[in-house]
UniProtKB/TrEMBL annotation:
This is General transcription factor II-I repeat domain-containing protein 2B-like isoform X1. SUPFAM superfamilies: Ribonuclease H-like. InterPro entries: RNaseH-like_sf (IPR012337).
């Protein structure tokens, strides 16, 4: 039996950034629609070639009457395929993880060390060798949710140094107790692992030539991986 496959169909995904447009004042669905219309007309793109639109699920985009997608359909006089961005959905799921009992103490410790210039200098002088090896503590930005994984990882690598610094300063007794708690450190380690996996998934979803079927396969593969993780806990 031959393993040759004849009549193979190859498909190339081409991506172009058409334009970046700024919304000067309001950001309603009509404002966004007008920006899109001006851009398409200015670039001379045929409207009949536009078949789908991807949004972040915001009301200004998906509103049934005055949303940008609804206005596009009215303007074209036909239906459009409308998708919710897979990367945005994955980001929302990641942000919905409730580990405040782990993240909040970490953020407080980091802010105590990094918010004051004196504390930061003292920490760097005391633990220069460890910082050179593992890197500095990272500040957490809630908007850039991918930074959560890096922030937690660097904190975990420097957890002993952070505890020693807090002990010397006789500061944050509750956080010091947590840093000496094995169960809390296990929760921290688990959160680091899962955020790293989520970060890897996000990077893959933004990869080159990443078409919609590939994205779906990546997401379903990640769900299967989560099931395996869950089975191991059982």
């Amino acid at each position: 039996m031959s393993n040759d496959i004849s009549n193979q169909i190859t498909q190339t995904v081409t991506k172009y950034l058409l334009e970046l447009s700024q919304l000067e004042t309001t950001s309603t669905g009509r404002d966004i629609f007008m920006k899109i219309k001006e851009c398409v007309d200015r670039k001379g793109i045929a409207w009949e070639k536009i078949n789908s639109v991807c949004t972040d699920g915001a009301p200004a985009m998906t509103g049934k009457i005055n949303g940008c997608v609804a206005l596009l359909k009215q303007f074209l006089g036909r239906e459009l395929f409308s998708y919710h961005c897979i990367i945005h959905q994955e980001a929302l799921c990641a942000k919905d993880m409730k580990f405040n009992d782990v993240i909040d103490p970490v953020v407080r410790c980091i802010n105590y060390i990094r918010a004051k210039a004196l504390h930061r200098r003292q920490f760097r002088v005391l633990f220069e060798e460890e910082i050179n090896e593992f890197g500095e503590l990272h500040l957490y930005c809630a908007v850039r949710w991918l930074s959560k994984g890096e922030m937690l990882k660097h904190f975990f690598l420097l957890r002993r140094e952070v505890l020693q610094f807090l002990v010397e300063k006789q500061a944050m007794p509750d956080e010091r107790d947590l840093l000496e708690s094995e169960s809390w450190l296990c929760d921290l380690a688990f959160l680091i692992d899962i955020t790293q996996h989520l970060n890897i998934l996000n990077w893959k979803l933004q990869g080159k030539d990443c078409s919609l079927p590939i994205m779906f396969n990546l997401v379903y593969g990640f769900k299967a991986k989560l099931s395996l993780f869950f089975d191991k806990f059982d």
